[in-house]
Structure formats: C-alpha cells, structure tokens
Amino acid sequence: MNDVGGPGGHGLLAGTVSYGLKRAYRRVIRDLEEALRPHGFTPPLLAALSLVGANPGIAPAHLAEAMGHGRSRAAPLLDRLEERGLLERRTGADRRSLELHATPAGLDALGRLRPLLDAHEGRITGGLSAAETQALARLLDRLAPGQ
Amino acid sequence: MNDVGGPGGHGLLAGTVSYGLKRAYRRVIRDLEEALRPHGFTPPLLAALSLVGANPGIAPAHLAEAMGHGRSRAAPLLDRLEERGLLERRTGADRRSLELHATPAGLDALGRLRPLLDAHEGRITGGLSAAETQALARLLDRLAPGQ
DNA sequence: TATTGTTATACTCTATAACTATA
DNA sequence: TATAGTTATAGAGTATAACAATA
Questions:
Q1: Is A12 in contact with B120 (Cβ distance < 8 A)?
Q2: What's the mean pLDDT when you consider all of chain A?
Q3: Which of A96, B33, B102, B146 matches a 20 to 30 Å C-alpha distance to B41?
Q4: B1-22, pLDDT tens digit by residue?
Q5: Which alpha helices (DSSP H) does A4-146 contain, by range?
C-alpha cells in the first residue's frame, strides 16, 4: 500500500470521482469545441444563447448566475451574440436592468445546431447503453443540483 | 415541443450528459481549488506531483500526455514544483530526456494532502450512496478511458 | 445606499510554433 | 533528420474591483 499509488497509476487521484470528472469533462469540452467551431460558436456562446432562447426576457445577471459565473462574464458574451444579430438587449420597466431576447435568427441558429449537439452527445455516450446514459445524467445532476 | 426547451430550463442543453458534466466539473474544480489554495497548490500542480510520485523517473513529455495536454505545458508546472523542492529533474542515459522524481519533501506533501483530498471527494459525493459513487466513478472512467 | 450592467485588470489554462541540445 | 525540453506568444475563461446609471 503505497501512499502515492502504484507505478503507472495516477497517484492520489486514481479512481476518484473528482479526477474522473475532470478527465471526462476535458474530452467533452474538446469534442464540443471542435463541433461548434465551424459554425462560429464556442460552448459558452451556445450556452448563453440557448438559455436566452429558453428564458425570454431573462436579465444578464440572472443569465450569468444560471451559467455559474459572475455578472461581468455576461457582457462580452452578449456583445458577440448581439453583433451577429442572434440576440437583443431591450430595456425593461426598471431601466437599470435589461431583458434579453433571442432574435428569429438566433432561434434559427439554435434549431440548426440541434442535430450537431445530438451528434456530440452521441459521441460522448456512445460507449454506454441507454440505461447507463440516463443513470449517468441523473447522477451528474445530483452532483450539481439546482441552478 | 419547443425547439429551445421550456421556460426556465436550459434549452438545447437540458438533460444532456455533456452539460451535466460541465456543471458537475465546475463545482468540483472550485471546491478543489479552495481546498488546495491554503497549501499553495492548484489542481494541475497537485496532479503533476501526484503523477510523478506514482511514476518515478517519468519524462516530462509522458507526464504531459498523462495529464492530457501538450509538452509545453509541463515546463512551468515542473519549474514551480522544483523551486519548492518537491521534485527533481535528473538527466537520464539519453541526455535529451529527463527523469522526474518526487523528493522526500514532495512525497511528504502528497501524504499531508491526502486527507484533504479525501474530504474533497467526500463533499463531492456526499449526496450519493457508496454504490452510487462507485457506479459514477466507473461510468466516468468509461467516458474517458485509457490515457 | 443598493442594484444593474459594464469596464478594467490580472491570472490561469491551453495550444501552437519556434528555438536548443542532443541523438 | 528526428526527438526532448523549453521558451515565446496568443487566446479564451475566470474572478475581483471599480465605475456610471438608476432606483
């Protein structure tokens, strides 16, 4: 029983959920980046547009919170989406806050990306049965609930 | 059946393994960063030292490969570990390549960090039973096998 | 005084290419 | 010429703090 794990292993980190998550995430994020690149999207850009599409009128601060980061991260993402005509910032009743809306072009982009995301998900879960995939999705959701 | 998902949801990304992985990973990496910060470690620094500890004599290129990135990422990590006396670079028979070894101080640091990592893993998997945790670890390993 | 959005800043992670020294 | 390690560079993601406008 070696403190740092056997030769050839990953030492302290071997076999942990934490490290398994890290390695699986790296594989996923790279596959998704490659799939989105030809379409001019990055994973955060897609996540932002998808969230706005599903939550019309959402405020930037709420969007940032749903994406799991601070307010200041939203602005440059929204700039890029608005420049491309995929999203609008509208001023609401409280003139401090904004209401975000996907434009028809934005909704159209989401529709066109959908099969691409299905294919991505298929590559990720290709080694698992449907039951295993569902079990994994549920376990992951319990690891990072709410939000 | 809405193309972008129902109101309040995450749109295209809702319920996918890919997105669940992203959110779970973010929770994990932040918890680990906070746990390691008081001890002067970051997750990549710990992963590198742990790998060298478990694989004495490993070369930087092999270490980088095991960590899932390119050769050039190893050097600054090794610099920081060597400066702190946790690791040594020794020249091998082929004088182009190096053999990496954890120093006694490095092995000691790994030993001291172990309970901290166990606590981290416990926080991550706290909501799961032992059987669920093991099932999750196995499913994750099948998502990013080998390496 | 508190809140919203934004800007500025800095740091880390990451990828690519170029450089050196060895083989 | 090929390989190993390093350096330089650039870009993306992230966090914090500070700012202007509004409440």
A1: no
A2: 90
A3: B146
A4: 333 444 568 888 888 999 999 9
A5: 17-36, 43-54, 60-67, 74-83, 104-124, 130-143
